[in-house]
Amino acid sequence: MNMAIRAGFTEAIPMSRRRLFGAYLEEARSECLRYLRAPGFMLPILLFPAVFYLMFGVLMVHGHDSAGLARFMLSSYVAFGVMAPGLFGFGVSLAIERDGGLLTLKRAMPEPPGAYLLGKMLMAMLAAGLVVLLLLVLAITMAGLSITLAQGLELLITGMLGVLPFCALGMWVGTLIKGQGAPGLLNLVYLPMAFLSGLWVPLPALPEVLRQTAPLWPAYHLHQLTQAALGLRSGSIFVHAGELLVFTVVFLLWAMWRLRRHG
Q1: Which of 72, 76, 195, 225 is the most buried (most CB within 10 A)?
Q2: Using CA atoms, how far apart are residues 54 and 138, in angstroms rounded to an integer?
Q3: In a domain, 109, yes or no
Q4: How many CB atoms lie within 10 A of CB 12?
Q5: What is the domain extent for residue 164?
């Protein structure tokens, strides 16, 4: 809101739609530039899943005459890689910025409500898209997978939208702890969730109790969608998409409530 002084008092003048859109766009652009200029933070998020996929999805699968296994490994590491930009790119940065007072400064600035969070979400979606593209390139060139353009696009869209539940979860964790403690806490969420969701070990190989609790984790539902994008699963995807939507809304509202209450 712009402020004008008239007759000794201040009056709020609402932004035009054009200026409002420009403010959101500028916040998103600055957020993207800030992270692109911090390669020490972004490169591990982008390269960590690629290195794991090369070791376990390409080298260990090499020699096994099973296209289904190769596709399963790709779908698993796409889901694994997409989790990181949301949890770390959103959660860690939010915790550090709360600790440094940047969030308080943002609230005092005359910018539209939600622009700061929207910028972080767009950055996480961009990073997730880069992760998926990198894994697709490795799958086609090094694993020899035959992937159609439609499958590649569906996997890309699934990854870019699938990061949002983890943005909400990372945002919630970022409201619980400040500063340098966030990466350790998020790793305690990230790695066990990947295992318990069947990303590293197929669910039929896990104990019965873990198979039954797997649907509680958002990574499980994202994995079902990445498998469907590669033709490994048939049937409706709306149940899994709906579960992720509910999870996103619940944790986003919970995190926003905590931010308003605790700063």
Answers
A1: 76
A2: 8
A3: yes
A4: 9
A5: 15-197+206-262
Question: What pLDDT was estimated at residue 223?
Answer: 96
Q: Is the pLDDT of residue 246 over 90?
A: yes
**Band of pLDDT at residue 169, cut at 50, 70 and 90:** very high
For the beta carbon of residue 255, count every other beta carbon within 10 angstroms: 24
**CB-CB neighbours of 5 under 10 Å:** 8
Contact between residue 197 and residue 220 where contact means Cβ atoms under 8 Å apart: yes
- Is 19 contained in some domain? yes
Global pTM reads 0.86
User: What is the distance between the alpha carbons of residues 206 and 189, in angstroms, rounded to a whole number?
Assistant: 19
Asked if 253 and 186 touch (Cβ cutoff 8 Å), the reply is: no
Q: For residue 135, how many other CB atoms are within 10 A of its CB?
A: 27
What does the alpha-carbon distance between residue 171 and residue 158 come to, in Å, rounded to a whole number?
20
Q: Could you read off the pLDDT of 35-61 as tens digits, one per residue?
A: 777 777 778 888 889 999 998 888 876
Q: Where residue 2 falls among pLDDT bands split at 50, 70, 90? A: very low
Quote the CA–CA distance of 178 and 174 in Å, as a whole number.
7
Q: Which of 139, 143, 141 is nearest to 229 (CA)?
A: 139
Domains in the chain, number: 1
The verdict on residue 4 lying in a domain is: no
